[in-house]
Prior knowledge:
Blueprint: E1 18-20, E2 23-27, H1 30-41, H2 46-60, E3 70-77, E4 80-86, H3 96-101, H4 121-132, H5 137-140, H6 142-150, E5 152-153, H7 156-172, H8 179-185, E6 197-198, H9 201-213, H10 216-219, H11 222-233, H12 240-244, E7 249-251, E8 254-258, E9 261-265, H13 272-282, H14 293-313, H15 324-327, H16 330-337, E10 358-364, E11 369-375, E12 385-386, E13 391-392, E14 423-427, E15 430-438, H17 443-455, H18 461-466, E16 470-474, E17 477-481, H19 486-494, E18 498-502, E19 510-516, E20 523-527, E21 534-537
Parallel strand pairs: 17-18
Antiparallel strand pairs: 1-20, 2-10, 2-21, 3-4, 3-11, 4-7, 5-6, 8-9, 9-14, 10-11, 12-13, 14-15, 15-19, 16-17, 19-20
Helix pairs in contact: 1-2, 2-4, 2-6, 6-9, 13-14, 13-16, 13-17, 14-19
Amino acid sequence: MNKIDSHYYPYHSKRNVVYGNRGMVATSQPLAAQAGLQILREGGNAIDAAIATAACLTVVEPTSNGIGSDAFALVWIKGELHGLNASGQAPMALTPEAMKTAGHEKEFPKFGLTPVTVPGAPGAWAELSKKYGKLPLTQVLAPAIDYAENGFPVSPTLAKYWKRGFEVFEKVGKSEEFSAWFDTFAPGGKPPEAGDIWASKGHANTLRQLAETKGAAFYKGELAEQIDAFSRKYGGYIRKSDLEAYEPEWVEPIRVNYRGYDVWEIPPNGQGLIALQALSILKGFEFNAKDEVDTYHKQIEAMKLAFSDGLKYITEEKEMSVSVDDLLSEEYATSRRALIGEEALTPEPGEPPKGGTVYLCTADQEGNMVSFIQSNYMGFGSGIVVPGTGISLQNRGHNFSLDPKHDNYLVPGKKTFHTIIPGFLTKDGQAVGPFGVMGGFMQPQGHVQVIMNTIDFHLNPQAALDAPRWLWTKEKTVVVESHFPDHLAKGLQRKGHKIVKSLDEGGFGRGQIIWRNNETGVLCGGTEPRTDGEVAAW
């Protein structure tokens, strides 16, 4: 931590940085952060706290995730970093031929049972608990069960996105298989408003089953049978056999060294590779100041180049036509960097040399730290809730390609390109800490901006999150926040960027950061000003 937390940034600051030394939880919903801290106080470690927070978020922020989510984690424990990929595979019945027969020759539908792949979040909780947790899962999931059983008051930002999700499914969810979504999330025919109490007995019962069976009920037991029966009834593809075949996968995290710090991400099928490739390009430049047109111009151009490669090549790693090492090689970074000039470019994928979401982070007094992310995708996900269970299913299959020439072409049993990515920072073999910015394709862009704010411009965690953000969307179009400085926006326009100002803060991601000072053990945390987040410290 040392010098990288020393400065503030004058824009959009709503909170102060938070310090603690015995434990810390940062996430987008205060009740979930407090649930994680409660588990730390009960003797749990950072891993237990992460599981408790994640489970609680399925209750208190269902607009972004659910029991039917996928998840990824980076876990720092005993001086080593471990990666967990808990994304799920395509059901074996979900074939290109089945898609063609169903009339989906060009693109997957966004909603309904068709894009549902095997959910990995319950498996992630169970696997993390088994391998690194200290407390029983029944104790760790107790706060989430309590909120689901007895209800909680809906927070303001949550209410806004709940209403937005309701409006989506009012239009697209008219067939019978969507009825359980409305029964669960719009009781009385309308979404809850800020301050309303919302509860889900079915959700509580499901969490209780997961706690008592250590996740097995979801993949091999009664819950798996309910998912199977519902899918068969309404023409879905997921079966109990797909759930039974699922196991979370421990993976080797990937990294780039950026100005003396190692920035870590989960390897593909996640898009963390895009953030690392952009940083690999950017480290060849020197930046004199944050608020200069040239700084933003180079950031945007590097991100465009990295994204064009990511969208072409990223899928399950064994299915990629180029390797991660090739995409992160110095040779390839140099060739991509050379394309960046004074004018905005329209990005194209290169040829390397051959060779929607909740985020949380936790830390404990022992030095353990977790970077964890889970998501349904596109808000509420597929719009499918298994009746009586509270299980809201993700729609990750939408990202599969139906083009046989594409790396991410649909294959039964394959994991698709995934947007959710946890990040982690180390220096000289010691943990600095976890970070993340959730929000679809904003995530690698948010990672790059937060890391540069931290390392290049010496902003503390809260200031790094407060700073105005930009979001490249396509070709030369860049969306910026309403408070993005006008002189910088106009300067970028003169370089050929099409700058669009947005009043919707939700499109720019929601991040959390915890940094650790390894000399003193002091934790320093920041939380997203664009949501109802909280840093709970001890």
